[in-house]
Amino acid sequence: MTGNMYNEEDLILLSTLQHFAFCPRQCALIHVEQVWSENLLTAEGRIMHEHVHEEGDESRVDVHIERGVSLRSLQLGLIGKADVIEYYRQADSTWQAFPVEYKRGKPKPDDSDKVQLCAQAMCLEEMLNVHIPAGAIFYGKTRRRLDVNFDEALRQETQDAAQKAHALIESGQTPKPVYSKRCESCSLVAECMPRTIQKKRSVESYLKRMLDET
């Protein structure tokens, strides 16, 4: 990293932010330990992305749609692709970019998907020197779009996630597991073993306390 800008060799994938915002341990398992497990859910998600990218670009009078758009930000240290960028012609004949991310499931209770989408917008803003106020996430399970406003709070959360994800990967350390309800929807739950490892840690802590007291 040079000053406030990252070097090309230090860029991490845009999807890393979604992994980090969902669970730092999952992020480290994938991007530090190179652990990945394909299941029905991840396969459906991968196939959805492939279909979206293969559909090709579209142009109409007031709308232009690009798919599989390459993105990069040296400020955030990110590289990757946007599923879809829609451009809408404005009254002054300029074009307003509107990123759309495709997800196979349904809206999450956390901001992990929104952070990933906001990061795409911030990459595009840096590349095109424009302002992008909003985008959307299409969820395959509900077959609906969720509109996302890129307000200052979400932008700050995205910037923080990018910095922390970089620091996590550079550290080479995988955080210990903390079991929660979201673990059951994680494709790496078998590799992570949050219940087993957390229980083992609890037993070890208990035995250590007993030994210390005696």
Radius of gyration from the alpha-carbon trace, in angstroms: 20 Å
Q: What CATH architecture label of the largest domain applies?
A: Alpha-Beta Complex
- Largest beta-sheet details: 7 strands, mixed
Helix content: 40-55%
Number of domains: 2
Q: What's the order of the H and E elements?
A: EHHHEEEEHEEHHH
Going by helix content, strand content and strand pairing, the class is alpha/beta
* Terminal Cα span: 50 Å
Mean pLDDT: 83
CATH-derived topology of the largest domain: Lambda Exonuclease, Chain A
- CATH top level label of the largest domain: Alpha Beta
Proportion in β-strands = 15-25%
Q: How many strands? A: 7
Global shape: globular
Helix count, per DSSP?
7
Poorly predicted parts: none
How would you describe this protein?
There is one protein chain. The protein has 214 residues and is of the alpha/beta class. The chain folds into 2 domains: 8-55 and 69-80 and 99-175, Lambda Exonuclease, Chain A (Alpha-Beta Complex), CATH 3.90.320.10; 176-214, no CATH class. The chain is 43% helix and 22% strand. The chain is built from 7 helices and 7 strands, in the order βαααββββαββααα. Strands 1, 2, 3, 4, 5, 6 and 7 form a 7-stranded mixed β-sheet that branches. β3 (63-73) and β4 form a beta hairpin. α4 crosses α5. The longest helix is centred in the last third of the chain and has 20 residues, at 152-171. It is globular. The mean pLDDT is 83.
